[in-house]
Each structure stands twice: as C-alpha cells, then as structure tokens.
Design brief:
It contains 2 helices and 19 strands. It is an alpha+beta fold and 279 residues long.
Length: 279
Amino acid sequence: MDPTVRRNSPVALTFTLALAALVSSALAPSALAASPAATSTPPIAGNVTGPTLLATSSNATFFLNASGGPAYSGGVLTGTITWSASLAGTNLTGSVVSPSNGTITNATKLPTTLVVTAGAIVEPLTLLVEVKSSSSTANQTLNLTRAFRVVVPYVVHATLVAGPDAAVLPFTVDVALDGTPVGSVNVPKLAPNATYDLAFRCPASGLASGYHTFTLSIADSHGLVTFSNGRTVQSTTFYVAPAPVNNTVWYVAGIVAFFGVLFIYGTRVAARRRGSAQR
C-alpha cells in the first residue's frame, strides 16, 4: 500500500466533513426564511347588551357586538360574519326580534341594533344570537344570550296644551322615576292651543311600598319651551301600598300616575329676531 495515500486520507476526510458542515450551516437560514410565517387569528368574541326589564306590548333596543374568528386576518375583516337572532320563552305570542339575521362587514356600523317587541304576556324571555365567523377554509360559531323580563309597566299620563300664542316646534320630554332617568317621549310640533296626550310606559319589577315620584323634564329647549309656571320640570307623586299582613299573594299590576293638564309656553324666536333686526 502506498504510504502517501495512507497519510493524506484522514486530512481529506476531515476537510470533506468540515465543508459539509459549512454547507448545512449556510442552508439553514435560507430554509427558515422560506417557511411562511404563521398568521394568528383572534378567537371569535362578542356580547349582547340591553335592558333587563321590558314593558308589556312595548319594544326596546338591544345591541350586538361581534368580531374575531377565521373572518379576520391580521386584524382585518377579510371573510364574513353572519348572525341570526330569536327569542326563547314559554309563550312568544306577540313577541318578536327584528331584524332576525344579518351580516357584519367592514362597512357595517357597530354595534348592530336589534329591536325586541314584547307581547302582552308577563314572563321571562331570552334573546338568543348565533354568530358565525367564516373564511374560505374555516368557520367558528359563537352563541350569545341576553335574559330579560316582560313586566306590567307603570304608566304615566299627561295632557300638554300649547299656549294661545305659542307655536311649539318638536321637543323631547325626559321621564325620571325617583330621580333616575327611565326614558323619554318625543312631542311633535304643536300649533297654538293644540293638545298632545303624553303617555309613557315605565317597566319596573315592582316598587317598594311608600311614596314615589315621576318627573317630566323638557329637554334641550334652552328655556324656549317651558311649562306655564316658567319651569322646565314638573313632578307628580303617587303611593304604593304595602303588602297585606296575611300570606295571600300580593302583586302590583302597575300604577297609573296622572300629571293632569300641563300648559306649554313656546317662544317663536325667529319672529322676534326678525323684528329686532328691523328696528
């Protein structure tokens, strides 16, 4: 055997292994760079908000928020989010939710508005909303619920009468119960001497025995529309009797609070301003 070959072979082998190691090291970054980066999709999430009490034969607004799931890529809605809504309860006669389905897109203004109309049955109901987030390859579903009760309301009545020289433009009357806002009534334009029957149905789960107060406030009138006493607030007090001392079933089926006749004084600002300018 040639001694030259025996002496040079280990050197050649060592060089070959070192070269292979260098080639592997050089290829590793390229291989990693060639792999596509994983895109993270946020889980589908959402909620339904709205009142917990709803007066019989009335309606209320609920709000749906939903996002995430396969429909989103990099924080952008690239797929579709669809939803469907329904009501659950013992007796759904006269109760309905509208709209009952829809699609959330980039052009959709959030939250989505759902209007629930309650029937005349006093009972607990649940608003059910199924949300589906979809892309071309995957989809996720989220079930949302909002429980509320349909109750007999406390009804407020008042007759508004415009003064003989008052042409009153549309305005809003806010309603509060014991100092807590409970809703509002939009009053239309009133001609001089015209009347308007104001009625407000206040959902309540039952008031404690004793005296309570409803307050009507003329909103955003800047003092241009007032009651006959020059104020923008009127109140009426009513009494809720306590439960009987025996163990019979006691249930308050709503209270009607009457304000009577309230005269409205309006100011025809435009006419007065024109007169002042001419002078």
